[in-house]
Amino acid sequence: MAETNILVVDDEQEIADLVEIYLVSDGYKVFKASNAQDGLDILNKEDIHLCLLDIMMPELDGFSAAREIRKFRPNLPIILLSARGEEYDKIHGFELGIDDYVVKPFSPKELMMRVAAVLRRSGKAEPQENAHEVVEIQGMKVDFTARRVTVDGETVDLSPKEYELLFYMVRNRGVALTRERLIHDVWGYDFYGDTRAVDTQIKRIRQKLPAEGTVNWSIKTVYGVGYKFEVSR
Prior knowledge:
Layout: E1 5-9, H1 13-25, E2 29-33, H2 36-45, E3 50-54, H3 62-72, E4 78-82, H4 87-95, E5 100-103, H5 108-122, E6 134-137, E7 140-143, E8 148-151, E9 154-155, H6 160-171, E10 177-178, H7 179-187, H8 196-208, E11 217-222, E12 226-231
Parallel strand pairs: 1-2, 1-3, 3-4, 4-5
Antiparallel strand pairs: 6-7, 7-8, 8-9, 10-12, 11-12
Helix pairs in contact: 2-3, 4-8, 6-7, 6-8
């Protein structure tokens, strides 16, 4: 089975070394960078499958680095690490398309669980043995197995978390889904952030899909409940 490569970008050497020990113990190959620019250089050269990215770094911070990564690696799973646990920072991270946000100090074992969960959602953790699964809805083609979404033949670039949210809603089309249910079923573990993180991800998905009214399907807001993927007949 091919190695899973993880990049750790953190200017705190002790934390980077500790995370590396646990990642290697779990069977991952680790690349490390002590600043964001070196991390970006590694991403340009190596086949990285997930990035653990600290926020508070000199010169180029983690938010700015995540924004740059999304320009050339839109599908790369990103987990932000930060000593700042304010809601604003978490929401800002999700607006940039990150997949998880872990507040320092953290339990290394919990971090490994989150890494495994994000990789599983991205389709990297284990091979898919199921039959090829594709759903076509009036111009939209959702390929669950290949993790690809196209609209009228044009590929829609989504982050791993955005894929999972859209896939889940398409599978449950016509069903009003609460934010709490989306958090539980899509994130797949206890999520310590605000449920408004769901709103942020939905907003990003909507921005990447055709405008409502130009197609016969859309993500509807169900006021007081959550969201619903609706197909017009």
